Amino acid sequence: MLDRLRALLGGSNSGAAGASSNPRNGRPLPQEQTRQSNGLDQFFNSLRDRSGLNLLDFAGANQSNVSYITSMGHRLSSEDFVRSLELAFGQGDLLENQGNPHLVDQFLQENLGFPYDSFDGALVWDSLQFLSPQLLQITVDRLFDTLRPDSQLLAFFHADEKAKQIPLYNYRIADQKNLLLQPRGWATCGQFFNNRALEKLFHRYKSVKFFLTRDNLREIIVRR
């Protein structure tokens, strides 16, 4: 289940797998798109004039992200977090079986068993949206423990509270300010996240910064 790449130089390509790579409920896949990201820009600005950092990427091992991060002189650990959810809890609804204590314990051990103070930053993208409220809080707290003080975490949350399903994407870094979003399917969102809910979720962290966007994808930078 664990899809982790420790890369100093180079890397390997990784595509979407399982049910998420196909349309769900007869719906066509979302469109591939290039997206400007102010949150990504700030995340990389925080790494400026530094080298040899350890970064965590929940997009899975892919050449674009590995090459970009290692070209900056940093090390990258990559996991396809959403794929791990599918493998752990079922390839239908990503929320399915997340109330099973045995499966939750196994998932946490295999995917969030990092030592304390392991990373200088984390790119979690939109993966936190597909967790049940209980597992979500545990995951956010585990990330707090694994991040070093003053490091930053970048996360995306869909802002359309009426949407029953939201698109799944693979996130590929094009440059400091731009992402390529490759569609992989649709999934049910665990809950709706407004600003207050996100501040409460990350209450252990030093700060939460919100970025205005023109679409339904809310960007936040959280400082450990």
Shape: globular
Total domains: 1
Biggest β-sheet: strands ordered side by side in the sheet: 1-4-3-5-6-10-9
Q: Kindly report the CATH topology.
A: Rossmann fold
- What is the CATH architecture descriptor? 3-Layer(aba) Sandwich
Strand pairing plus helix content: what structural class? alpha/beta
- Give the radius of gyration: 16 Å
E-strand count:
10
What's the rounded overall pLDDT mean? 86
Q: Quick one: CATH superfamily?
A: Vaccinia Virus protein VP39
Estimated helix fraction: 25-40%
Order of helices and strands: EEHEHEHHEHEEEHEE
Highest CATH level, the class: Alpha Beta
Number of helices: 6
Terminal CA distance reads: 27 Å
The fraction of residues in strands falls at 25-35%
* Main pleated-sheet profile: 7 strands, mixed
Low-confidence stretches: 1-24
Description:
The chain is an alpha/beta fold and 224 residues long. 26% of the residues lie in helices and 30% in strands. A seven-stranded mixed β-sheet has the order 1-4-3-5-6-10-9, with helices on both faces. Helix 3 (81-89) runs antiparallel to helix 4. The model is unreliable at 1-24 (pLDDT under 50).
